[in-house]
Amino acid sequence: AKKEGRGSICFYQQHYEQDLKLQLKVQRELPNALKHHELILYYQPIVSAQGRQLKKVEILIRWQSSVLGFVSPATFIPIAEETSFIFDIERLVIEETFKHAAQYGKENRLIYSINISPKHFESDNFVTYLNEKMLQTGVSSQQIELEITERNLIMQQDAAQKRIEHLKSLGFRIAIDDFGTGYSAISYIKQFAFDTLKMDREFIREMLGNRRDLALTHSIIRMAHNLGMQVVAEGVELEEQAHTLANFGCDYLQGYLYGKPQPLQGVIQAPERQVFH
Ligand code: C2E
Ligand code: CA
Ligand code: CA
Ligand code: CA
What region holds the EAL domain (predicted)? Predict the structure, then answer.
């Protein structure tokens, strides 16, 4: 047993060192991602639970590095958050999304959901910047949803609350992302008026095999509705999950069952015809 223990320490250490090496490479290459236009916007469909019609899209960034190959956002976003690159990356995301929404939004009537990191969300000119983009492009703020996580709210709660209220007064929608993965989720939904609650993939994955997860899923949906929020279930992979969630009154479904993230450019034009069954 002792031997096994040492082996696994070695294994973890090796992984840790590889991780560090990758982190350093990512840090070094990140400026080139922007300079050489290696970042691409993907979108993932979000469908209504009842009619299974395309209603929203979540914008997810992709990095195809000429040096490192494909790098996952789960790897480079946290590194970008340590530097000011997160601003450049997310402004690129916002600009491209608004461009798409300006071109197709009136017709497709989709809601574009964008992930905003805490550092960016907290920055002084974030609201001004968004407002300017809206005015410049003529995009309706009601078609833009900002996904924030509990990490966005930990800092100064009063400031966060003001910011959320300001954004909502401009018409933007706010979603609480990855709900259920943090510590004090309940106190946050008590304090902040979100439009949408995104239930984390963990619940959905365990839902069918675990009665407690099933009960929790159902309760979260009811609680959200009682608080005036709509619910998006993340990571829906099976028809049985979709069916159960629809029966629970869940509003929207997102997951591989309806499509993996795919390139945004020029793809979605006529959502009425895109029904997923
Ligand atoms: P997230 O916001 O929770 O996004 C959902 C992730 O779940 C995406 O991973 C998506 O591809 C994956 N996913 C969706 N449906 C399924 C499913 O049915 N099964 C499974 N196994 N996975 C599914 P992705 O695109 O790799 O993004 C990872 C994370 O990177 C995102 O998690 C988000 O936190 C972050 N991210 C991506 N783009 C941005 C961005 O522009 N800004 C910020 N701040 N974060 C971003
Ligand atoms: Ca998200
Ligand atoms: Ca999420
Ligand atoms: Ca998640």
Answer: 23-275
Are the beta carbons of 49 and 239 closer than 8 angstroms?
Answer: no
Q: Which residues surround ligand 3, an ion (CB under 5 A)?
A: 177-178
| Longest Cα–Cα distance in the chain | 65
Is 273's pLDDT higher than 60?
no
Give the pTM. Answer: 0.91
Question: Which residues are CB-contacts of 17 (< 8 A; sequence separation ≥ 6)?
Answer: none
* CA atoms of 237 and 264, how far apart (whole Å): 21
Helix 2-35 and helix 73-82: axis angle, to 10°? 70
Cα–ligand 4 centroid distance for 179 (angstroms): 8
Which residues on adjacent β-strands are paired with residue 120? none
Which tens digit of pLDDT belongs to each residue from 88-141? 999 999 999 999 999 999 999 999 999 999 889 989 899 999 999 999 999 999
**Per-residue DSSP letter, 114:** E
Nearest ligand 1 atom to alpha carbon 178: 3
Q: Strands 252-254 and 39-48: what pairing? A: antiparallel
Atom of ligand 1 nearest to the CA of 61: 38
Q: What is the ipTM of this complex?
A: 0.96
Identify the residue whose C-alpha is closest to ligand 1 atom 23: 235
Q: Which ligand is nearest to the CA of 260?
A: 1
Ligand 3 mean position, distance from CA 3 (Å): 39
| Residue closest to 177 by CA, chosen among 97, 238, 246, 231 | 231
How far CA 55 is from CA of 78, 111, 192, 203, 268, in Å, comes to 29, 7, 24, 22, 11
Q: Which amino acid is at 99?
A: K
